[in-house]
Amino acid sequence: MKKIIALLVVLLSTLICPVLAAEERPVNFIFLIDVSGSMVLKSTMVTAADGTQVTLFEALRQALKQVAEDPRLINPKSRISFITFGTKITEKTDWPSKLETADDRRALLKVIQSPEALSADKHGDTYMGGALALALQKANQMYSAADPCTTTFIVMLTDGWDEPPAGATIKVRTVANELTNKQLEIFKKVGIKTWKVLVIGLQRLPDKKAGTTTAKELADMLGGGFIDVTKQTGGTVSQRIFLALKSQVEQLKGQLTLGSGQSLKNGLVDFGTVIGNGSAKASFPLELKSCYAEEISGLKDVTESVPPAKVMAILATAAKITGGGCQSIATLPPDAITLHVAPTQIAPARGEQGNRTATAQEISVQAQAHSNCPAGHFAGCFKLESSAKVPDYIGWSLQVPGRVVADPETIKVKMRKPGFLWSEDSDVDLLGKLKELPGAHAQANYAVEISPHAAQLVSGKKEQEPNAANIPQDDINEGKPLSFALDTSKTDSHDFKLNVGIKGKQAPGKYRGTLGVHISGSAETVGPSEIPFEITVEPSAWEEIAPIAIPILFVLVIVIVFGLFLWLTNMKRD
C-alpha cells in the first residue's frame, strides 16, 4: 500500500507540475484526514511495500509524507491545511501552512511522521459534517487572501460514511449546500470553477446507506469526484486513485473552444486554393475561458483517429464549399499536406472585480501542399496542442490546382573549400527539377526562366571582407537567367543546374537565397515564383587549423628569431 500511494504521489505531481510550473499557478490544498477507529482496525489492514501488513492509517501517513516531500505538488505559493476528523475535528494549526523554504517542508514531514502529532482514535466516530464545515471556513480564508482564480482543492480521505458523534449539531448535508452555494458564487464572479472537491474511499464503501450520507453521496452533492479504490477494475490501487485525481487536476486548465465568424465556412477552417508555391493561409476564432493566459504550441493531424462518420461529414461539408467532390487527407502520401501554427498566447480579459471574461482571438494557420501532393480538393482534421483543454478535432479543407512544382522544394548542397595553406576558389552545382503533378493540364508546354538571386550568410562567422557574408548574384550561373521549355507531352519533368562560384575568401557557414521562377503556359496550372536554396560552405583545411596553427607558428618564429639572436651573439664573442 505504501508503494502504491508513493506511486500515486509521483503520478499526481508529474501531472500537476507542467500546469503549475509553466504558469506559476498555486493550488491551495485542504486535506481532510479520517482518524476514526476503523482506520486502525486489523480487519482493514493492507500490505505495505515490504510485504508487511499495516493499518490503513499508516498507509495514509506514508502518502501524506510523499505529498509533503514533492515541491512540484505543493509549491512555495500554495497554502495548505490539514484537518483530522473522527469524534473531534482538529485543524493542525501548528503545522506549516506554506512551504516557502526547505525548513518549512522538513517541519511538515516531521509532524506527519510523528505518532504524537498525527494519530487515529481507536474509538473515534466519522464526523464528516464537522470536517466539511471547517474546510469551508479554511477555503473562505484562502480565497480572501489570494487571487480569486486560485484553485482550492479539498481532498477528503476516508474509509467510511458520515457517523457524527452524539450531540453533534453540524449536519453534513447542510454544510454541503453552503459549500455548493459558495462555489456557485465564485463561479459567477470569476467565470471558472475554482473550488474542487475529491472524496477518496480507502476501502469498499456503499453508494447509499440508510440514515446517513455516504462518501459518494457527499461527492455528488459537492459536484466533485469520488473513487472507491476497491470497486475499480484494472491496474493498481494507486493507478485508480491517480485517474480520479487526474480528472480533477485537468479541470485546472482553461478551455479553448471554436468560435464563430466569417472566417469559418460551415464550421470548417477553409484554406481556399494554394498559390504557386503550394501554400495557403486561413484563420479561425478561438474563445478562451480561463483564469490564466494559455499557450498554443502547435497542432497535429488527427484525421485517422477521428471516427469515420465524423470524417465523412467533414468531407461532405467541404464538398459543398466548391460544389465538387472532396478526398480525405488520409488518402494522400505521407506529409503531402502539412499544417503549421505559430506559437501563440491567448490571455483572458480581467474585470475590475477580478473576474475573467471569455476572450476571442483569431488564430492563423498555414497549409503547405508539398511536391508529392496531386491536384484535388482535400479535407482533414487537426488538433491544437495547448496548455488549455481544446476541441478533440477541428475540420479543415484545401484546394490544390494543377501545379508545376520544384523537386526538391528547397535545394540544399554542401561543399568544402579546397586549399591547404590558403583557401582556393571552387564551385558547387544547384541541382533540381521542375515537374508537372498529376491533375494538371494535360500535354501543356511551359516556358520556364530561372533567375539567380544573391544568397546571404545566415549562420557562421562574418569576415572583415565586405562581400564575404554573401554569395553575389553574379557568382550564380554567372548572373544569367536559365531558360528552358517543359513540354509535358514528352516528359513530365525537366532537370536544371546552376553553377555557383565559391571564392577562396568566402566565409564558411550556411547561405540561404532564392531562385526566381517565371513560368508561362497553361492558365489552369500554377507554379512556384521562387525556389529556396541553401549552400553550406565548409572551411578549408587551413581555415580549420588556422586558429591553432597561427599562434603556434607565431611562437615558433619568435623562438627561431631568439635562437638566431643568441647564436649571433655567441659568434661575436668567439
Q: How would you explain this protein's 3D organization?
A:
This protein has 574 residues and is an alpha+beta fold. It has four domains: 2-252, 3-Layer(aba) Sandwich (Rossmann fold); 256-401, Immunoglobulin-like; 405-539, Immunoglobulins (Immunoglobulin-like, Sandwich); 547-574. Helices cover 26% and strands 33% of the residues. It contains nine helices and 31 strands. It has helices at 2-23, 56-69, 102-112, 128-144, 172-190, 215-221, 237-250, 308-322, 541-573; strands at 27-34, 46-47, 53-54, 80-85, 89-91, 151-158, 195-201, 225-228, 255-258, 264-265, 268-273, 279-289, 294-301, 327-328, 337-341, 344-346, 349-350, 356-357, 359-369, 376-386, 394-400, 404-407, 411-416, 426-436, 445-452, 455-459, 470-471, 482-487, 493-502, 509-520, 530-538. Strands 10, 11, 13, 14, 16, 20 and 21 form a seven-stranded mixed beta sheet that branches. Helix 5 (172-190) links the parallel strand 6 (151-158) and strand 7. The termini are far apart.
